[in-house]
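Re: Re: token formats

Sure, here are both.
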Amino acid sequence: MATPHASKTKEGMQFETLDLERSGAVARVTLDRPDAANALNGQMMSDLLDVSIALDEDPTVRAVVLTGRGPMFCAGGDLAEFSRAGDTLPALLKKLTTIFHGAVARFARMDAPLITAINGTAAGAGFSLAVAGEYAMAAESARFTMAYTNAGLTPDGSSTFFISRLAGLRRAQELMITNRLLSAREAVDWCLVNEVVPDDRLQDEAMALAERLASGPTRAFGSVKRLLLQSAGDALESQMEAEARAIADAARSADGREGIAAFLAKRKPSFTGN
């Protein structure tokens, strides 16, 4: 695993795994563990929760961009950290998903629109994050895969809520059962991404859109976000609780332990159905 970054101070806040920048009314949050493919460890989940609350509480923030440092957007959960937990992994996952899902919920319910600028591969929980905003902009090189069941685990981070609503149940089933790899263009066709831009234009295009939205009716945007969640049954948090319990149960299984071990050993898993 990469050596943790020294704490960075931006806008009066300290983070080990994120970079927070402000440009007028726009905040940009960058996942900043590039040597670990921006994998979500406990510290990054905690940092995401802290930054989501801070942005939700700051009325001067009127649009947010979420992106990643380096060649990958986010490789998903940090399976090395999961492996070190041993038999306590199910309990750890219940704790981590509580934190991570809290961040997703704050981003989903804050007034400011969230633009995800997907700079490379988004896998597992990274895929969940990529589609959890109001506008998803992908670089040409971006790729998308659920990947959870490859490790004997189940989706979290709101993906079973958003992907089934964006792409439809049949395609959600395909993504989560077969772990199909989607190109950026395919992700647009599947209604998971709004647009694709050249890699070298991604950050500029995402910031330009954020600046345009930041000049709009922020409170009205927030109401639209919450009304759309309500129209889907207002079940985001309850769905994420179901996700948290499912991934903890999967981690408790023999296949869950085998999937994580095989991933870390870079070998094909031998699942037994137990």
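Second one below.
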Amino acid sequence: MRIRVEYRTIYDYAHAANDVLQLLRVQPAGHEGQHIVGWRIDTDVDGHLKRAEDAFGNITHMFYPDGPVKRLTLHVAGEVDTVESHGVVSGSYERLPAQVFLRQTDLTRPDDGLRALARQIDADDALATCHRLTSFLYEQFTFDPDVTHSHTDAAHSFALKAGVCQDYAHVFLSVVRSLGIPARYVSGHLVRNDGLITQPAAHAWAEALVPDLGWVAFDPTNGMCATESYLRVAVGLDYRDAAPVRGARRGGGTETMDVAVTTQASGQHPGLGALGGQSQRQSEGQQQA
């Protein structure tokens, strides 16, 4: 499948902001399941864009505007060819040992409720356990973008039994790590089959290390393993390591951020405008849906 992505983020500041810095994790790397046809990052203000790799092997870009800005638009566009692998991720660049992904973080640290869930779904087999947990979260959670935010941890969203895709992923990571299964957060894009092409956020899911298979991608939000409709962009211990955009600034007053992500298979046509996202007030990143 050829997947086309257009990702636009607009920042508006009440006053001119100085020393603006944007850390971008928006460009995917290739592996056996995805081949990058083309990728481009643009801004509407003069500045410097510096490419690098982070500790997890993700492609990063650091953007520094040349001077104060009152409005800043980041535009990302690209095409990627994907192939069906039934969730198995092969040929990815693995900079860190798998044991790193047993580490819990502030966003995934389990409480008594999550530890009880781990005992409930433990099947004494990594693959069966991950499938069981994926189905449980899909069936028992309610997708609700209004009850959590980008800083919500797994324990809180599990108590609510609600949240967005990053919350589903954090609960998944918390549970399987507590059972000794290495797992990592994934941010990326999904070509949906419900006709929704433009959304106010990217997607998120998880990968777990399964004996004899390697890294396998599970999407508890949709109750399935990843397919050729998934475009993998960045990985980390949690959302903070893989967030598409994080930034800092000096001054500027109140900030509003408008995000629109258009993801489509070749041959589809957008039904909504490319700037149809919702306004958000988040200075450290975008919650993933």
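The chain has a mean pLDDT of 90. The chain has two domains: 2-82+242-280, 88-241.
- S.
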